[in-house]
């Protein structure tokens, strides 16, 4: 059996992104757990604002091919105004059922403040609409400036949660998905 391939999408464009650090940490643990990994750093993609009439604009095909080739996907986002970032939303808009349906997805959010949970709830809803299997464990990094220094997660409890997310991405990469959920069956036209 081949090794599960885990793709991590860092939904931050900041050069010194705490989100990217966290996604890289989760991917490192996915490798330790026996997976192969790939970081999709959205700074390296030309993705114009999504237009349904131009689905292959810029680097969209490179993005969708990379996501399609994954057995599991880690979505990492900074928290902006209580939700996930516009760059991640834009990247997800280029994807759809072809890339996400029946895939295992892990969620990670990084906040400057103390409550990153709503962004994770929003991402979980998006993933359910795409009929993904979302790992029950999720990782949140509140007050990131106090938990990440010089490219490393310095808080041992947070580091353990992020590492576990990478491990579980490999562990559950080939889980038998549930039947389509209500959200995905009512997501009419999403695969147009």
Largest sheet: 6 strands, parallel
List the helices and strands in order: EHEHEHHEHEEHEEHH
Globular, elongated, flat, extended or rod-shaped: what is the shape?
Answer: globular
By secondary-structure content and strand pairing, the structural class works out as: alpha/beta
Instruction: Provide the gyration radius in Å.
Output: 15 Å
What does this entry look like structurally?
With 192 residues, this protein is α/β, with parallel strands linked by helices. 39% of the residues lie in helices and 18% in strands. It contains eight helices and eight strands, in the order E-H-E-H-E-H-H-E-H-E-E-H-E-E-H-H. It has helices spanning 18-32, 60-68, 86-94, 97-100, 117-129, 144-147, 156-171, 182-185, and strands spanning 5-10, 36-41, 72-78, 104-110, 133-134, 139-141, 148-149, 152-153. Strands 1, 2, 3, 4, 5 and 6 form a six-stranded parallel sheet that branches. Strands 7-8 form a two-stranded antiparallel ribbon. Strand 4 (104-110), helix 5 (117-129) and strand 5 (133-134) form a beta-alpha-beta unit. Helix 1 packs across helix 7 (156-171).
